[in-house]
């Protein structure tokens, strides 16, 4: 989820700690007992009927004994699933029992930080973070499986609403939290609303109820997905296009993101990292409908660090060279995201709003509107500081909430995030990965075979 550069009004947030886990198992055994019937009686040997009765009784007794001695085969235990379904529905905890979730791409630190790879003290610190890493790796593997399914199945002709619901429902199934009971979405689920940003829209668009926009062959769509487990948010995005005319635009932005990921590390200065991203991005150009466009970084967007239950932390990763001397530090989690455009390289707030988030530093306000008071409680209990959208309120059965929501925004309690547009007729692209600056290595937690 994109962050505006530090000179805008994007709120800063602090750590909030909430957690919840659930495990369960079941089994079944079955037994069967035979029932023996005995017949006895006295009579003359000359009575033919008595002989018949005795013979029948003997046969029944033998049959009963045979049934009694026959052992019922034990029921075979159902094997745990070993592969994901299409669409994704198998819990991550079943595919990877005992928290054995796959690691991301581990990269050794360079230069003066190379010692960290084998330093015993750093290794000890790393080992103390087992819950942190387990949560992050579960969220990351969920992200990989859902986005790879989406990449195979998203096609022109689908509505943006269907695409968003398909992605979000899959995430909720895999983490085992549908978010429909009070507080359930705080345990695991969506880290923020799924962004489906077409063409000149760079970020922060998700369809509201009633939106009938249909994906076209000519569109360039940024798909921005956030997944969290116990507040550990994986933020990773990719761009889809169906016309090869846009290939160079996508290649430029992917290369710029990979440059940022490769060069990021402990003690790296953020302003210098932005310069490396800019240099890579601007080395590309793209020909669209006979006109050649230089690929520009969007200067007023940035990557960002991530805090527990808070997608935007206090540090920004610029897409151009700046004088920011802030350093990346051990333990930081960063979303390295880059945006390229054929337009002006600057985006503005515009259009219908879908994204919102409760501000951690919200002022104490005496709310007089009853709908605002009620809605605030719903937001606090179900999302906390995790961003949400109108569709998420619809799922919870909220009705006629827009007046109350706008009142919360005006009161400074909830922050709204309007869609971000470059000039009409331009095309934008985005790629993004989440990295963990662990004590021993840099882990590109969201890396996959796809990008």
List the helices and strands and how they pair.
Layout: E1 3-4, H1 48-69, H2 92-95, E2 105-108, H3 120-127, H4 130-153, H5 160-175, E3 188-198, E4 201-203, E5 220-229, E6 232-241, H6 247-263, H7 270-281, E7 285-288, E8 291-294, E9 296-297, E10 301-305, E11 316-318, E12 333-341, E13 348-349, E14 355-358, H8 370-382, E15 388-389, H9 390-395, H10 402-410, E16 414-417, E17 420-421, E18 428-437, E19 441-444
Please provide a written account of the structure.
The chain is an alpha+beta fold and 451 residues long. The chain has two domains: 91-99 and 127-349 and 423-446, Alpha-Beta Complex (Creatine Amidinohydrolase), CATH 3.90.230.10; 354-417, Winged helix-like DNA-binding domain superfamily/Winged helix DNA-binding domain (Arc Repressor Mutant, subunit A, Orthogonal Bundle). 29% of the residues lie in helices and 21% in strands. The protein contains ten helices and 19 strands. The protein has helices spanning 48-69, 92-95, 120-127, 130-153, 160-175, 247-263, 270-281, 370-382, 390-395, 402-410; strands at residues 3-4, 105-108, 188-198, 201-203, 220-229, 232-241, 285-288, 291-294, 296-297, 301-305, 316-318, 333-341, 348-349, 355-358, 388-389, 414-417, 420-421, 428-437, 441-444. The strands form five sheets. Strands 1, 2, 9, 10, 11, 12, 18 and 19 form an eight-stranded antiparallel sheet that branches. Strands 3-5-6 form a three-stranded antiparallel sheet. Helix 4 (130-153) runs antiparallel to helix 5 (160-175), helix 6 (247-263) runs antiparallel to helix 7 and helix 8 packs across helix 10. It is globular and about 70 Å long. Substrate binds at residues 204, 312. A divalent metal cation 2 binds at residues 235, 304, 337, 432.
């Amino acid at each position: 989820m994109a962050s505006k550069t530090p000179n805008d009004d994007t709120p800063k947030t602090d750590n909030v700690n909430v957690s919840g886990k659930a495990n369960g198992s079941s089994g079944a055994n079955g037994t069967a007992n035979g029932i023996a019937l005995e017949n006895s009686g006295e009579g003359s040997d000359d009575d033919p009927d008595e002989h018949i009765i005795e013979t029948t009784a003997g046969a029944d007794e033998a049959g009963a004994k045979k049934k009694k001695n026959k052992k019922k085969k034990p029921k075979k235990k159902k094997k745990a699933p070993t592969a994901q379904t299409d669409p994704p529905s198998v819990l991550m905890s079943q595919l990877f029992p005992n928290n054995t979730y796959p690691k991301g791409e581990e990269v050794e630190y360079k230069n003066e930080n190379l010692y960290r790879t084998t330093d015993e003290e750093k290794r000890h610190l790393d080992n103390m973070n087992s819950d942190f890493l387990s949560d992050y790796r579960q969220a990351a593997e969920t992200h990989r499986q859902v986005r790879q399914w989406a990449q195979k199945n998203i096609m022109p002709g689908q509505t943006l609403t269907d695409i968003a619901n398909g992605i979000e429902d899959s995430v909720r199934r895999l983490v085992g939290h549908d978010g429909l009971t009070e507080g359930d979405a705080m345990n695991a689920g969506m880290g923020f609303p799924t962004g489906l940003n077409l063409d000149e829209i760079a970020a922060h668009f998700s369809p509201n109820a009633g939106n009938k926009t249909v994906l076209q062959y000519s569109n360039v769509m940024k798909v921005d997905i956030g997944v969290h487990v116990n507040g550990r948010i994986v933020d990773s995005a990719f761009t889809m296009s169906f016309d090869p005319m846009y290939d160079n635009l996508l290649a430029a932005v992917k290369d710029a993101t990979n440059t940022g990921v490769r060069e990021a590390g402990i003690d790296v200065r953020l302003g210098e990292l932005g310069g490396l991203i800019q240099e890579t991005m601007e080395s590309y150009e793209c020909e669209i409908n006979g006109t050649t466009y230089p690929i520009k970084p969007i200067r007023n967007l940035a990557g960002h660090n991530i805090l527990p239950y808070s997608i935007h932390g206090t540090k920004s990763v610029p897409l151009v060279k700046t004088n920011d001397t802030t350093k990346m530090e051990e333990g930081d989690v960063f979303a390295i995201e880059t945006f390229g455009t054929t337009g002006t390289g600057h985006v503005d707030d515009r259009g219908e709003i879908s994204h919102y988030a409760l501000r951690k530093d919200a002022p104490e306000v005496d709310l007089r509107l009853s709908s605002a008071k009620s809605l605030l409680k719903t937001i606090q209990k179900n999302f906390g500081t995790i961003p949400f959208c109108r569709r998420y309120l619809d799922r919870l059965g909220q009705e006629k909430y827009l007046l109350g929501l706008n009142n919360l925004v005006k009161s400074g309690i909830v922050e709204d995030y309007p869609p971000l547009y470059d000039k009409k007729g331009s095309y934008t692209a985005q790629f993004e990965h989440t990295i963990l600056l662990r004590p021993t290595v840099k882990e590109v937690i969201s890396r996959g075979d796809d990008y």
